[in-house]
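Quarterly update from the structural biology core.
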Amino acid sequence: MPSKKILTPIVSGASYHIFNRGVNRTPAFLNTSDYLFFLDLFKEYISPVADLFAYALLPNHYHFLLRIREDIEATDFSIQFKRLVLRYTYWFNKRENRSGNLFLKTFKRLRAN
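Predicted structure, tokenized:
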């Protein structure tokens, strides 16, 4: 029977290394405008719920080091992150005439503190 990985729970006030990669390791960012649009969406969706310390966007994956704000429920952060990824995926898929997931379904996270 396959084992199911247990994800690190999101907790208000905690810091996390959050990362994910493109499905089948395919590029999710093809040019500079892709990176800039993803960062604009990050500001829109994540800045209200988390403080960003560092990030790295590579052609087929991303990394964020951030702290969930004390007054934010963990589920609110997860919902906002899902909205970010869905909006970027919709935009990317429409532009590239493709369909389906762009990133793996669940973002990975490691508690940093």
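The radius of gyration is 14 Å.
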